[in-house]
Design brief:
This protein is α+β, with helices and mostly antiparallel strands. The chain is built from 11 helices and 7 strands.
Length: 247
């Protein structure tokens, strides 16, 4: 585990669970049209052509009307625009100094997935456990795609984190990471397998069998399928012992 501290950004953008802009720690209300622009820039880092942004946000409008809508949205953003958005001719971007929660969450997730030998990031469990969905009440196509991308990245990272914490002997934290993955997607068998492996590593055979039966019940009830061979192999020794004891 590495150590370190992080400072609260003077300007922050939250897109997980709900939309929120904070300037120097204080929440700022902005119109929804401006929220969409800021959220799009937050999810698409770098300098983007105005026509590209306008085309994605106002797909049903003509190019001229979309460009006008973008100008209006930026104008309606008001004072926060000077600290949130950079405009350079026909290019627009989110100011690099803005701290975006989904970007920070993705950074932690990728650090776990891309280099399994690196130290576990500080506060990785809290970052991933508490992340939540990306703008859950927004239904634009570009949001739906990014929401699923973040969901999958977070789930894989939670599973990896659980396995690595268990390997380090930190079984309580490993259990919490595994449960967070299951809570996000109860029908994800790989999350159940990771948690069962944690219980086995800790010597909790009863917990492992209980979780196996929970998983089997969910798969049968909601998907009408049985456990995979990989899951069955994981608990096969326990099931054999249980069968012998009951016979």
């Amino acid at each position: 585990m590495v150590s370190g501290t992080s400072q609260t950004a003077a300007v922050s953008l939250s897109l997980l669970r709900s939309f929120e802009i904070r300037l120097d720690g204080n929440p700022v209300d902005v119109p929804f049209s401006a929220q969409r622009v800021v959220a799009f820039l937050g999810l698409n880092p770098g300098r983007l052509a105005r026509i590209f942004v306008a085309g994605h946000l106002w797909m049903d409008a003509s190019e001229e009307r979309a460009a006008a809508a973008l100008r209006t949205a930026l104008w309606r953003l008001g004072l926060p625009a000077s600290r949130l958005v950079r405009c350079d001719g026909q290019l627009v971007s989110l100011d690099p100094a803005v701290e975006v929660d989904v970007v920070a969450s993705a950074r932690v997730a990728r650090s776990l997935l891309e280099d399994e030998t690196s130290p576990i990031p500080v506060n990785a469990l809290s970052h991933l456990r508490d992340a939540g969905e990306l703008l859950p009440d927004w239904y634009d196509d570009w949001v739906v795609i990014e929401r699923e991308r973040h969901r999958q990245l977070r789930l894989h990272a939670l599973e990896q984190l659980s396995a690595r914490l268990s390997a380090d002997g930190r079984h309580a934290a490993a259990t919490e990471a595994g449960l967070a993955a299951i809570a996000s997607e109860p029908l994800r068998e790989s999350a159940h397998r990771v948690l069962i492996a944690v219980h086995l590593a800790e010597g909790n055979c009863g917990e492992a069998l209980r979780q196996y039966r929970v998983c089997c019940g969910l798969l049968d009830r909601d998907l009408k399928v049985g456990p995979s061979p990989a899951l069955q192999a994981l608990v096969a020794p326990l099931l054999e012992v249980t069968t012998r004891l009951l016979s």
